[in-house]
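Box 3.1 A note on notation
Throughout this textbook, protein chains are presented in two layers. The first layer is the amino acid sequence; the second is a token string describing backbone geometry. Keep the layers aligned when reading.
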Amino acid sequence: MKGYTDIEIIECLRNRESYVVRYLQERYFPMIRLMITQLGGSSEDAKDIFQEGLMIMLEKIDDNKFFLTCKFKTFLYSVCENLWKSVIEKRQAAANYFLRRVEEEDRKDITEIMDNSLCKEIFYSAFETLDPLGQKILRLYWEEMSPREIAETLGYTYGYIRKKKCAAQAELVAKVRKHPDYKKIIDMEIETNKVACQDVKH
């Protein structure tokens, strides 16, 4: 594989030379994939982040005032790492929000329990069993993209995306409720409430 200097890479990207994108994919994607998988992501997550990272770099490079102050490899890694950390924060917020919605629907007062790591594990284990398109739609929805924006991004009709989102969300709710550990948490909370009520009576 032919190598390129950082200056050559930047000039090729400015000129939208597709071969340098393939070069970057072969040379640097494994590094980004390793970083993301070590931080709890998947290979699909790594592909999305890598592509988004390249898009951000293209925008910066198109600015005539842009000047690379470190190695291209370091810059790309930093951009992708920041993108992934932002995704993690949004997913954690979405998980907490989603689990509280399940809690409200079940009318169980387990607000404090919902913030612990076990409940996040329940959420993610259920989420990962959804089909890939359902996962992608929900992720984009939790990142505050509208159904219309999601439809344009993924290349589907607006009506299909709305229908698919509702179906995926309903499936996720059902799987969370059926998770054996979630049932244990609910049962434990019910028992705790019973004991508390008995203590009040005595």
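Residues 1-86 form a domain with the Rna Polymerase Sigma Factor; Chain: A fold (CATH 1.10.1740.10). The chain has nine helices and no strands.
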